[in-house]
Sequence to fold (320 residues):
Amino acid sequence: MSSLPLSTPSPAGHRSTGVAYGAAAGALWGLVFVAPELVGGFGPLQLSAGRYFCYGLLALLLVAPRWRGLRTRVSRRQWGQLFWLALAGNTLYYLLLSAAVQNGGIAMTALVIGFLPVAVTLIGSRDQGAVPLRRMLPSLLLCALGALCIGWQALAHPGAQASGQKLLGLACAVGALLSWTAFAVGNARCLARQQQVSAHEWNLLTGLVTGAQSLLLIPLAWAFENAQHGAHEWARLAAVSLAVAVLASLLGNAFWNRMSRLLPLTLVGQMILFETAFALVYGLLWEQRAPTPAEMAAFGCVVLGVLSCLAAHRRPAAIG
Fold:
């Protein structure tokens, strides 16, 4: 372990560093919206099993050298927490997200997931010492408006999907929203309560548990998504799974955990907006088109929402 720094960073320095980590996590997590389109011939079970098997394998390789000392610092209760966090934030979330993208499209999925900041901030506003919700109201309104702008075209102009298929995609997106909200709140609180495990080690342990859960998905994927694929299609799935595991699961989660220890939960919620914004950028690049006025308005709302939230946290709390 490195020696302690000579000076402690100021709260403002913590905020700036935390926001930078949040932006990096969002840039990497936005890739998961495009992955289902890259391997459209495979179902959500296959996508989730492939991604998280790779994530678990990478986590196993990285945690092996420190396993002897690490296992003595993790209690049975913490293993239980890791199981539920891995399920809510990884396995179940990506199953639902993949199904939402393939049935409802990237724009509709981004719309629903864009409400994550509102959900997490509302829950975090009840924490002790949190910024009062009334000071967060402008930021919350901008978040909601930005999310509506992102998905406006998907809702106002029906695409190629049948209405039943779009409704299924919407239901899966709402399920993903609820699942990841539970993860974001639970993970931030777990990291705040325990200090004997570093944020990086917690990410690796989450990867181990997620990898174990992926082993249960493999027979389900084989049974329910058994369409025939060529060798090049399986190779493409393997490449996409490995890339998403490294970039989104390993690096993205590491950035997010570091951010979660630097920012209050109300501000943690706002950082999820970066994922929504980057998902839109990647979607536009994938579709090879320029943003519409509604999508450009969404970018403005995202930026103003985060700046408004930062301003609310810079103001001193009222004494009384």
Observations:
- The chain has one domain: 25-313.
- The chain has a mean pLDDT of 81.
- The longest helix spans residues 163-193.
